[in-house]
Amino acid sequence: MTNSINGIEKSNCIFIIGSNTTANHPLVSRRVMRAKEKGAKLIVADPRGIQLSQFADVAVRPKLGSDVALLNGMMHIIIENGWHDAAYIEERTEGYEEFAAAIRESTPEKTAEATGVDPEDLYRMAEAYGTAKAASLLYAMGITQHVTGVDNVKSCCNIAMLCGNVGIPGGGVNPLRGQNNVQGACDMGGLPNVFTGYQPVTDEKARAKFSKAWGCSLNAKPGLTITDMIPAILEGKLKGLYVIGENPKLSDPDWNHLNHALQELEFLVVQELFLSETAQVADVVFSASALAEKEGTFTNTERRCMKFEQAVKPLGDTLPDWDILARLGTAMGYPMHYNNAREIFDELSALTPSYAGMTYERLGYDGLQWPCPTPKHPGTVYMHKDTFSRGLGKFHPITYQPPAEKPDKEYPFSLTTGRMFAHFHTGTMTRVSPHLDIEQQDGYVEINPQDAGKMEVKNGDLLTICSRRGELDVPARLTNTIDPGTLFLPIHFGENPANILTSSDAFDPLAKIPEFKVSAVNVRKAQAEIVEKTVS
Amino acid sequence: MKCTFTPSICSYCGTGCGVLFETIDGRLNSTIPMKSHPVSQGKLCIKGWNLHEHINSPMRLQKPMVKTFGRFINTSWDEAIQITADRFREIIDQYGPDSLGVLVSAKMSNEENYLAQKLARAVFGTNNVDHCARL
């Protein structure tokens, strides 16, 4: 997030696109509701009718993967009506002329055709966002998990800069991160092309710095992303994989393809709390300690680095992840000796400019928001206050491109995936939690009653869904919150793994993020004999 | 009976709500919201209120395991670490460092992520490090 969770309450208009906030970030949606109580306008754009749509001033249900068209259409109206912030554009940005010329093409009529959004609603959205003093844009995986993921994010930045909403309290472009420390994992160099604090591995100076600190020479070639690792295994280039606290068998696209790849590995090590689907196929499984059994820090979606402490002894013969990693490094001939997490934090903060001013003492229980470069720096509540990281903010003219798979005769439905309120990601943690499990024990697929009616399907009947990758059976849930021709399948349930259906070939060329949010599928009532088999 | 409250951060989504783990006689008993926390301001969602349950689950792995002839056998840490170190070393010697990959975790701490990429880069000698930010 460029801004903070607290800052949402200072906003005059909140625009939520591609985030089911009440289900996935409930304590962020609370701030949205508080802002609304204070008079802020709320705009929701989501292909499903989500809970927040009911409270919105304008709620629209654009077609899957039409975000760029929708945002371009809004910007067209904003510029036509002069709601853009000319002084901000002049002072803080570049590339506006070229961008504005491209936007002229995105007329409300064309936008309506691409998105299915009524021009009148589009006008109301543009007016609410464009005329607000400070408008905050919130998004999640509904924006990023597309072949045009990077384009979608750039379009969000375009609209925010157009209206002068970056670098002010209550504004911002605010991605809501789905995992508790996904921000921290990125900050700490858990990416193939950067060390900690986004220092590129291709940069000689950065390499020299880490080389000196770690006392070894370093590889200058950027590594493989998770999306590239799977084909690399199949090509015989990647032989060994060390998976820590992840369950790619459920979370990665195209299950059958991945399963095949994991079998090809010479050596697979999985470090886990549970015998997850991925751990089951490992050669060695490391039993890790859980959250309450260790200390450390997490960095949340608003860049706040916060400390957690040890409450109980590690269970059985488990070890904290850092201890396992240090033992493995040492056994491989590179001594790693740490007495506690704090010693590791001191080492990493010395190497990471945005964390350089942080210590365990300073973090306290409130934490600090990076950048925090010096020991006296108070942390950064909102970013890009006077200048962008690159100096001037750059407008990128973006042309709308449809999703990789469009519905056709053979696969007439569009399938989208996501989470539901009681469960988390692949369900390894929530499905073993009795009070969460009881909320939803089985997988389901949401289907519009019109579509269900045509197939004579009632609530709970088993449906067979197939895509070009595979097929699965899953009980139907009839709901008007999904449009005819569209299906929604939650990702939590290993017995109906959504990623049997998704494609590993459709991903954003730059970010390598798979297009989980749109797959073409067909659906039919499951055959009677299949039903019997499942019941017995 | 001894009751303690330990500050922690909810590990479900990226919001980062402040929680207190309540322990009674060394047993993790419940999760309650931290009243003064700047993010969550004393509130939690259904997942947060039940955060301790997955930690107390009887399904938790309790020992490192090695697969022998298709079946998992419980083993000691020394053995599990040594087998892994030897196999990784063999693969590096035979195919080069870029034949190994590490998937770090968005559920691990900053310290652990730092150490995991350090292991990949300094010990294995590869930049094949990624995690599920995209998934």
Any descriptors?
heterodimer, A: alpha/beta, Dimethylsulfoxide Reductase, domain 2, Rossmann fold, Barwin-like endoglucanases, six-stranded mixed beta barrel, five-stranded parallel β-sheet, 20 helices, 19 strands, 31% helix, 16% strand, B: 135 residues, N-terminal domain of TfIIb, 4 helices
What this model shows, in words?
The complex is a heterodimer of chains A (536) and B (135). Chain A is α/β, with parallel strands linked by helices and 536 residues long. Chain A folds into 3 domains: 6-176, Dimethylsulfoxide Reductase, domain 2, CATH 3.40.228; 182-223 and 288-369, Rossmann fold, CATH 3.40.50; 413-535, Barwin-like endoglucanases. In chain A, 31% of the residues lie in helices and 16% in strands. Chain A is built from 20 helices and 19 strands. Chain A has helices spanning 21-24, 26-37, 67-80, 86-92, 96-103, 108-115, 119-131, 141-144, 149-162, 182-187, 204-214, 226-234, 248-251, 255-264, 321-331, 341-351, 360-363, 434-437, 449-454, 528-535, and strands at 13-17, 41-45, 58-60, 93-94, 135-139, 173-175, 240-244, 267-272, 284-287, 296-299, 304-308, 368-369, 393-394, 413-418, 445-447, 462-466, 471-478, 486-490, 519-525. In chain A, the strands form 5 sheets. In chain A, strands 14-18-15-17-16-19 form a 6-stranded mixed β-barrel. Chain A has a 5-stranded parallel beta sheet with strand order 3-2-1-5-6, with helices on both faces. In chain A, α3 (67-80) runs antiparallel to α6 (108-115) and α3 packs across α7. Chain A is globular, with a radius of gyration of 24 Å. Chain B is built from 4 helices and 7 strands; from the N terminus they run βββααββαβαβ. Chain B has helices at residues 46-49, 51-55, 77-95, 110-124, and strands at residues 3-9, 18-24, 27-33, 65-68, 71-74, 100-103, 129-130.
